[in-house]
């Protein structure tokens, strides 16, 4: 189990949690199934914000979630890029 400690527990913590949720969602998908998979990062953040407002506070934090997902897909061979 990993632990992440920050003062407010929203910006960077939300970034980590959103990336983790997205990657776990994609983890069990095969390359063929990814074409039909919808990954809704903004929807995920919305759901997180229902419990803790201000999860992911900046555009850069959103971009980092997308970059983490892209890197995961690249490293696992689930991406054409």
From TrEMBL:
SUPFAM superfamilies: (Phosphotyrosine protein) phosphatases II. Residues 7-63 form the Tyrosine specific protein phosphatases domain. Residues 7-72 form the Tyrosine-protein phosphatase domain. Signal peptide: none annotated. It comes from the Eukaryota. One of its GO terms (molecular function) is protein tyrosine phosphatase activity. PROSITE patterns: TYR_PHOSPHATASE_2, TYR_PHOSPHATASE_PTP. This is Tyrosine-protein phosphatase domain-containing protein.
């Amino acid at each position: 189990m990993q632990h992440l400690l920050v003062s407010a527990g929203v910006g960077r913590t939300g970034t980590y949690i959103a990336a983790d949720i997205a990657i776990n969602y994609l983890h069990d998908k095969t390359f063929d199934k990814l074409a039909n998979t919808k990954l809704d990062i903004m929807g995920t953040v919305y759901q997180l914000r229902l419990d803790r407002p201000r999860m992911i506070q900046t555009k850069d934090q959103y971009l980092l979630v997308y970059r983490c997902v892209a890197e995961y897909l690249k490293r696992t061979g689930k991406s054409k890029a």
